[in-house]
Write a structure and sequence with these properties.
343 residues; alpha/beta; Rossmann fold; five-stranded parallel β-sheet; four-stranded parallel β-sheet; 13 strands; binds 1,3-dihydroxyacetonephosphate; binds iron/sulfur cluster
């Protein structure tokens, strides 16, 4: 046990129900042992509305804590142990660029509805709320894309083009109805002739971690391990998803392992903290769970026990996350639309 373990537990006891700690599945075990609730992005966003704690500490990356701040009740303070724990994919869609691109897309009179993956900034979510759109997570992307397609002439899906394509595949949306956008130069490079025919416009972002999983990894693994099942997160490329036996959110991957029979061998394509935890959890039942390739999210790792302890020691004086009233109002519209549609 680390030197921080007892300190954190003593501080949790001191704050009692004035404090709630939430953690994403990608956090390390020594952080997750201190959380009151662990979940995927959708489950964590849902949890906020039922929390009455004055201080909510969010062990995950910045966009997750921002969503919590948008959904928090008045006076509730949302904290993250390290403000630099950002998601590089969320940073691939700056809010001003989104607004420029949306305006360029709407020039031709088509009603383009923005749908942002929750891995995006609060400002981006606010734009989605303002322009009649919403947000989605990997657990509800299919429902939300189906909804968004019914709201206008086309959907702008951002920032993850892989999740966009994988979800479009689930909806049997033909490749000819999709267009990956050139978002450079404030949207002036967009090919308007092609935009006119597309129903799904894709922002060219990816998760640098999940994009590293390749079809060749699955082929080699299947050759070396006949009978192995492969499941991946839908931030992986469409080729990887097609070559696997299943794809879904972190909660889907957890359930897949829980439901598998004893003796199963399962390779998982996602962040390795989660894969290692599942391997340890299911080893006693004779399930062999291995990483498709061991990749970790260095941003998730910026939240650690030492930083959690440091935050809790000075919690009353700590600066909670702060969003402008405008961003709160409009990002909340986008988030609440998702929570209502997927209730
Ligand atoms: P989930 O929504 O599946 O929890 O995943 C979040 C994420 O950041 C995956 O890289
Ligand atoms: Fe962002 Fe990828 Fe890390 Fe998830 S795994 S938080 S998408 S960088």
């Amino acid at each position: 046990m680390s030197a921080f373990n007892e300190r954190i537990e003593a501080l949790r006891a001191k704050y009692g129900n004035r404090l709630a700690i939430l953690g994403h599945h990608y956090q390390a075990d020594d952080v997750l042992r201190h959380v009151d609730f662990q979940g995927d992005s959708l489950e964590l966003a849902r949890k906020i509305e039922g929390l009455s704690a004055e201080h909510v500490v969010f062990c995950g990356v910045f966009f997750m804590a921002e969503s919590a701040a948008a959904l928090a009740r008045p006076g509730q303070k949302i904290h993250i142990p390290h403000q630099g724990a950002t998601c590089p994919m969320a940073d691939m869609a700056p809010a001003q660029r989104l607004e420029d691109v949306l305006n360029a897309l709407r020039e031709d009179g088509r009603l383009v509805i923005p749908l942002a993956y929750v891995n995006s900034s609060a400002e981006v979510k606010a734009i989605c709320g303002l322009y009649g759109g919403s947000v989605c997570t990997s657990a509800n992307a299919k429902t939300m894309l189906e909804w968004a397609l019914q709201q206008g002439d086309a959907v702008l899906f951002l920032p993850d083009k892989n999740l966009g394509h994988n979800t479009a595949n689930q909806l049997n949306l033909d490749a000819t109805e999709r267009l990956e956008l050139d978002i450079r130069q404030d949207g002036s490079r967009i090919d308007h002739k092609k935009v006119r025919y597309a129903r799904l416009l894709l922002w060219p972002g990816v998760c640098a971690i999940h994009h590293k999983f390749k079809k060749i990894h699955i082929q080699e693994l299947r050759r070396a391990n006949p009978g192995v099942r492969v499941v991946v997160h839908p931030e992986c490329s469409p080729g990887v998803v097609r070559a696997s036996d299943g794809a879904g959110s972190t909660s889907y991957l957890i359930k897949y392992c829980a439901d598998a029979p004893s003796g199963a061998r399962i390779a998982i394509g996602t962040e390795c903290n989660l894969v290692q935890r599942l391997a340890a959890r299911h080893r006693p039942q004779g399930k062999d769970i291995i990483p498709l390739k061991a990749l970790s999210c260095s941003n998730m790792a910026k939240v650690n026990e030492e930083r959690l302890a440091g935050l809790l020691v000075d919690l009353e004086a700590a600066q909670p996350l702060s969003l402008s009233p405008d961003v709160i109002e409009h990002s909340r519209v986008a988030l609440e639309r998702m929570l209502r549609i997927c209730a």
